[in-house]
Amino acid sequence: MEDEIELRQYWEILRKRWLIVVILPLIAALVSGVVSFFVIRPVYEAATTMIVGQKASDEGKAADQMLDYNVILADQQLAKTYASIAQSRTVEQNVINDLNLPLTVEQLDKMVSIKPVNTTEILEIQIDNTDPKLAASIANTMASEFSQAVINIKKVDSVSIVDKAVTPDKPVKPNKKLNILIAFVVGLMAAVGLAFLLEYMDNSVKTSEDLEKLLDIPVLGVIPNYQMGK
């Protein structure tokens, strides 16, 4: 019974402050929509994948031996090393020089994400940029420079391009619908919190129920607001 009374009180508070509860989430969603659609520049992602493998140590080594489990496991570990090579200052500087990019190595590095694909020998290079064509161009150039660097540094020749980067047609961020939804939910939570805060800070007595709660005594009667006619 007490829980029912408390829920009723909560509902009364929200109903009394309904204007805040309705308007604040709508304003938050509207602002988020304006920012997402008109302020934040869309970011596109282009990716290229490569298979990284070891070069046979002996010329007479059979091709099927390269599929040995231990060799594959070693290649997976090497993929992590190759990821560091791909994102090295030397490779990134060569990409900047090849494409004549007006960027520093640090700026380019923030666009680059390189990681092994699950537990495979495949290495993925992802580039985020506001220009979709430039993103694809950087990804493919980086793959080419990385292959050359691996050949020179690790003395291998089995770096193969699986998928070349293509120009993306849709941005990966911002997620406009998700941003608006999150803003609405956060605005609603803030509105509910504000409604309860205002109610907590309001010490005025407006109804007989408020008087009963304040004095902890029953109200025996109420004098109506009566105005005599002139």
The average pLDDT value, as a whole number, equals 81
Radius of gyration: 32 Å
Strand content: 5-15%
CATH architecture of the largest domain: 2-Layer Sandwich
CATH class of the largest domain: Alpha Beta
Indicate the percent of residues in helices.
55-70%
Assign the CATH topology of the largest domain.
Answer: Alpha-Beta Plaits
Order of helices and strands: HHEHHHEEHEHH
Could you describe the 3D structure shown?
- This protein has 230 residues and is α+β, with helices and mostly antiparallel strands.
- It folds into two domains: 13-40 and 174-230, no CATH class; 42-163, 2-Layer Sandwich (Alpha-Beta Plaits), CATH 3.30.70.
- It contains eight helices and four strands.
- It has a four-stranded antiparallel β-sheet with strand order 2-3-1-4.
- A hairpin with a 5-residue loop joins strand 2 (112-116) and strand 3.
- Helix 2 (18-39) runs antiparallel to helix 7 (176-201) and helix 4 packs across helix 6.
- The radius of gyration is 32 Å and the shape is elongated.
- The two termini are 49 Å apart.
Summarize the helices and strands and which ones pair or pack:
Elements: H1 2-16, H2 18-39, E1 44-51, H3 69-86, H4 89-99, H5 105-111, E2 112-116, E3 122-129, H6 132-154, E4 160-163, H7 176-201, H8 208-215
Antiparallel strand pairs: 1-3, 1-4, 2-3
Helix pairs in contact: 2-7, 4-6
